[in-house]
Design a protein that fits this description.
It is found in: Cell membrane. There is one protein chain. By secondary structure, the chain is an alpha+beta fold. The protein folds into 3 domains: 3-108, Helix Hairpins (Orthogonal Bundle); 131-178, SH3 type barrels (Roll), CATH 2.30.30.60; 185-268, Alpha-Beta Plaits (2-Layer Sandwich), CATH 3.30.70.100. The protein has helices at residues 3-7, 28-57, 64-89, 95-108, 110-128, 168-173, 200-212, 248-268, 284-293, and strands spanning 10-18, 20-27, 136-139, 142-149, 153-158, 163-167, 176-178, 185-194, 224-230, 235-244. The strands form 3 sheets. A 5-stranded antiparallel sheet has the order 6-5-4-3-7. It has a 3-stranded antiparallel sheet with strand order 8-10-9, covered by helices on one side. α7 crosses α8 (248-268). The N and C termini lie far apart (121 Å). The relative contact order is 0.08.
Length: 294
């Protein structure tokens, strides 16, 4: 058999109904060309993806999350075009997939629903961008830095050096706290209690000064103090201050340094840093009864 005959050998015949009956013949040549289109197309798409990444790295008006989103969406569009071209060469009508999708949905059932939910949620995250790569977020009681936002999952790196992968649908449907949405400045606080005999105004000035003297605490917005409550045995205050952080551990370090500063400053000024205590008073008749029993 000659090469021409092999090339034109029928592999299959597509028969489909779209208001009329039609027949499309697929030969060995069609299959070979379609396979080459897929292989070459994927190779070209990967090269274009790398070039796009290098080009986006020079753009200063885009953040890292936006660059990743554009890169992934461009790659997905290119792959779609490649496989659509291969289907056209194989003369496979797109109407076939209407039935295929219906069959898959019945087969996968509720399991497929979660998959599609995560895919749609991933697209929403890339478009709306409520979080970006390198943001500090808190979700499901886990705090960490975002290092990847994919079509299916959302990945963060915690302070314990653990990588956590969360489904995109969980990120969108549950409470998510973004500590650094627009910048890395956060407002945090430490709490302290002083004795009832203390001078409140003087103590407040000392607290503000102690927080402001800590290296790394921002001057704007300046530290401030709120009188929280009259406690059972202490006057309780919250000392607020702003810092620039790139991870949650850094904010804990600043809080610790401010606590050190408050302790040293207040003790040096003679302000009593109070602690919960309980005074017990016994009545005279109770004392007499106790002595009688003895």
């Amino acid at each position: 058999m000659s090469n021409d005959k092999i090339w034109d050998t029928f592999v299959t015949v597509w028969e489909y109904v779209l208001w009329t009956v039609d027949h499309d013949k697929v030969t060995v040549g069609h299959c070979v060309i379609a396979a080459l289109v897929v292989l070459v197309g994927i190779h070209v798409a990967r090269n274009l993806k790398r070039r796009l990444r290098r080009r986006l790295e020079t753009k200063q008006n885009l953040d890292s999350s936006g660059k990743v989103a554009l890169e992934k969406m461009a790659f997905a569009i290119m792959l779609t075009a490649v496989f659509y071209t291969a289907l056209a060469i194989l003369r496979i009508p797109l109407t076939v997939f209407h039935f295929a999708v219906g069959g898959l949905m019945i087969g996968f059932g509720f399991g497929a629903r979660e998959l599609f939910s995560n895919l749609i949620s991933g697209i929403i995250l890339m478009i709306e961008r409520p979080v970006k790569i390198d943001d500090i977020v808190e979700v499901e009681n886990e705090v960490g830095r975002v290092f990847n936002i994919g079509l299916r999952s959302f990945q963060i790196h915690t302070e314990n050096n653990i990588d956590i992968m969360l489904p995109n649908s969980v990120v969108l449907n549950q409470k998510l706290v973004n500590w650094t949405k627009d910048d890395h400045m956060i407002l945090t606080k430490v709490s302290i209690g002083i004795g009832y005999e203390s001078d409140i105004k003087k103590s407040t000035e000392l607290m503000v000064g102690a927080a402001a003297n800590v290296k790394g605490v921002l001057k704007e917005p300046a530290p401030f103090v709120l009188f929280k409550e009259h406690g059972a045995s202490t006057l309780n205050f919250d000392v607020y201050f702003a810092v620039q952080v790139k991870n949650k551990m850094k904010s804990w370090i600043f809080e610790s340094q401010v606590n050190y500063g408050l302790n040293d400053t207040l003790r040096a000024a003679g302000v009593n840093i109070a602690f919960p205590q309980l005074d017990v008073h016994l009545k005279e008749d109770v004392k007499i009864n106790m002595e009688t029993r003895e």
